[in-house]
Amino acid sequence: MNTQPQARPISEGAVVDRRIEKTVPLITPLALHEELPLTQQLAETVVAGRQAVTDVLNGDDDRLLVVVGPCSVHDAKAALEYAERLAPIAERLSDGLLVVMRVYFEKPRSTLGWKGLINDPGLDGSGDVNTGLRTARALLLEVLAKGLPVGCEFLDPITPQYIADTVGWGAIGARTVESQVHRQLSSGLSMPIGMKNRPDGSIATAVDAIKAAAVPHVFTGIDHDGAPAILHTRGNPDCHLVLRGSDAGPNYDADSIAGATELLRKGGLAERVVVDASHGNSRKDHHRQPVVAAEIGGQVADGNQAIVGVMLESFLVEGRQDLDPTKPLVYGQSITDACMSWETTETVLEGLRDAAIKRRTGA
Fold it and tell me: Where is each DAHP synthetase I/KDSA domain found (predicted)?
């Protein structure tokens, strides 16, 4: 007689989605694009913005690229007001600056925290991604209507199918620059991509990312209809280094920039860097951003050709605030990293414009 216990059939529920609480249908990229279309006029703004950024990166345009705006958008109304203020300043300073508005919707997190407007537009943990995608795309279209190119950081590899057609400049963050997924993604994106050095200060990792993204890749993703697809990329020649400082301190000084360009040279890459005046370079103190920007501007004015751009975190109201359900939010103030005020931003932009003009004229 067989005394061995008889195996019981394993149900699908025992091995599938054991930790998934629920699934919600996701709108397809095609449906969102049809709902919120990129018009011919706005498409021309995108294409012109991408070409202008590429020209600055390649030295065909001697202006200074400035990516400026909130650390992360949480209020579309306040972000649009910021765009309305920025557009005329960008036009006035366009003889020296190419201004791209920073419109970030995804926040990478070391541990926990608000993940950005696309993931949590209600600021309440409800995770209404469909609303987040609609809100993000609608805002991008409105910013483009002001004549401003937009810059976004790409975090989720599916998100670009929904918004990338509106973006003039993209970024891969310090926490994801080592990710093969994001290097592959960058190789297929249609705009220039800035690769940030790692939080520990490693520039070599970002240089490796630039090299990896410049060549073709094959990887899985979704197509415009939202169907699973195998994507074959051509490689992106417009990826470049962003120096953002580190946990140990800044890397915007002349020696650090010379060291970074040496690494680029050894890697067979163009010697061009964008310098982030926030994060580690300001030691996360928004009051230091103008000081850092002025010092970067000084190097530009002295003729440093390797510095092709600057990043700034700026909003309507300076500083930052915590998400507190018991208190109303201050309109136009960041809920992530602390930002410069609008008034300070104007002064900083004017200083950077003067530096770019001085580099051009040598006077």
Answer: 52-349
